[in-house]
Amino acid sequence: MIKVGIIGGAGYTAGELLRLLVNHPKVQISFVQSTSQAGKAVTSIHHDLVGSTNMEFVAEMPKGADVIFLCMGHGKSREFMEKTLVDSTTKVIDLSHDFRLKDKSIASDHRVFIYGLPELNKNAIKGANHIANPGCFATAIQLALLPAADIIQDDVHIHAITGATGAGQNPTATTHFSWRNNNVSHYKAFEHQHLGEIGESMVQAGKGFDHTINFLPIRGDFARGIFATAYFKSDLTAEEVKSKYQKFYKDAAFTHVVDHKVSLKEVVNTNKCVLNIEKIDGKILITSCIDNLLKGASGQAVQNMNLMFGLPEHTGIQLKSIAF
Ligand SMILES: NC(=O)c1ccc[n+]([C@@H]2O[C@H](COP(=O)([O-])OP(=O)(O)OC[C@H]3O[C@@H](n4cnc5c(N)ncnc54)[C@H](OP(=O)(O)O)[C@@H]3O)[C@@H](O)[C@H]2O)c1
C-alpha cells in the first residue's frame, strides 16, 4: 500500500482528495495535516466522509509517507518546501501554482517539479518525484488546444465559465450565494494567472507557437465544473482536426474526443475531459468540459500519483458522473 499524507487538509481540494483516497485500493492514508483544524475530526469539516474515516487532523507532518499532497493556497507550498525537512524518499504532488512555471519549478533544496499534465508529460511523470499539478482552467484549456498547437494560424479566443468551488472554501463577495446565484460576471479578462502555464505547454507541444491567447474567465452560478470554448481560424476541415486530436489523445486515459455537443454534467464528479470539435464560418470551435476539483485538481493529482507509482492510471478514479 502507498502511504499518503495530505498537507492543508481542511480545504476543498484536500476534501476531494480524501473522498478519492478513502476508496483507492492501493492507498493507506497516513495523516491529514491542518493548521486551522488540528485536533478536530476530519468529518467535522468534511461532513460527507462520516462512515468513511475516523481520522483527526494533525498539526505537524509525521515522517514516513511515500507521497504527500500539498493542498494549500498560493505561495504556501513554496514556503512549506523551504521550511520543512521532507524525507528524500517522499514524493510530493503540489496542487498550487507555486512550481508550475518552468522558471519556478525548482525548490530551494533543488528538488525539480515536473508539470503534471499526463496528456503532455506522461513519461516524465512516471519517473518524477515531484509534480506541479496543473490549474483547473489551465487543464480545460490546454486539453482543448494542445493538439492544435502547430496548426493555429492566428490569435486564439477562449471563454470559460467556472463553478464557485474553483475559488476555494473561504467565502468572498463573489462566492456569496445571494450574489452568485442567478448571476454571471467575468473577471481577470486577458490576464488570468493560468495563461503562463498554458503558453509554456503550447510552446512545448507546438514548437515555436507564438500566437496570442485571449482568455475571458467567467463566474458561473453553479458549484463545480468548467465549460470552456476555444476558437481559431484554420484551413483544415473539422474532420482533419478531429483526426489530429484523436491521434494526440490515443493513449489518454480520461480525455475523449466526442461527436455530440458536450455539456457540463456529463463530466461533473468524474476525472474526464470531453472535447467536441466543429468548423463554422472558417473557424475551428473546440468545446472542453472538466470537473474543476477532479480533472482540474484532485482527480488529476491521483492520476499523477498512479503514474508515479506504476499503477494503472484509472486506479481509484473511475467515477460516476452526475449526468442529470
Ligand atoms: N478549488 C479548485 O478548483 C482548484 C483547482 C486547481 C488547483 N487549486 C489550487 O489548489 C490549492 C488549494 O485550493 P483549495 O480550493 O483547496 O483552497 P481552499 O479550499 O481555500 O483551502 C486552502 C487552505 O485553506 C486552509 N483553511 C483555513 N481555514 C480553513 C477553514 N476554516 N476551513 C477549511 N480550510 C481552511 C486549509 O489549510 P489548513 O487545513 O492547514 O488550515 C486549506 O489548505 C490552491 O493553491 C488552488 O489554487 C484549486
TrEMBL record:
Catalyzes the NADPH-dependent reduction of N-acetyl-5-glutamyl phosphate to yield N-acetyl-L-glutamate 5-semialdehyde. The keyword Zinc does not apply. CDD domains: AGPR_1_C, AGPR_1_N. Pfam families: Semialdhyde_dh, Semialdhyde_dhC_1. Its EC number is 1.2.1.38. Gene3D superfamilies: Dihydrodipicolinate Reductase, domain 2, NAD(P)-binding Rossmann-like Domain. SMART domains: Semialdhyde_dh. It catalyses: N-acetyl-L-glutamate 5-semialdehyde + phosphate + NADP(+) = N-acetyl-L-glutamyl 5-phosphate + NADPH + H(+). Residues 3-128 form the Semialdehyde dehydrogenase NAD-binding domain. It is found in: Cytoplasm. Belongs to the NAGSA dehydrogenase family. Type 1 subfamily. The active site is at C136. SUPFAM superfamilies: Glyceraldehyde-3-phosphate dehydrogenase-like, C-terminal domain, NAD(P)-binding Rossmann-fold domains. InterPro entries: AGPR, AGPR_AS, AGPR_dimerisation_dom, AGPR_type-1, NAD(P)-bd_dom_sf, Semialdehyde_DH_NAD-bd. It is an enzyme of class 1 (oxidoreductase). Keywords: Amino-acid biosynthesis, Arginine biosynthesis, Cytoplasm, NADP, Oxidoreductase, Plasmid. The gene is argC. It comes from Persicobacter psychrovividus. Its main location: cytoplasm. Pathway: Amino-acid biosynthesis; L-arginine biosynthesis; N(2)-acetyl-L-ornithine from L-glutamate: step 3/4. HAMAP family: ArgC_type1 (MF_00150). PROSITE patterns: ARGC (PS01224). This is N-acetyl-gamma-glutamyl-phosphate reductase.
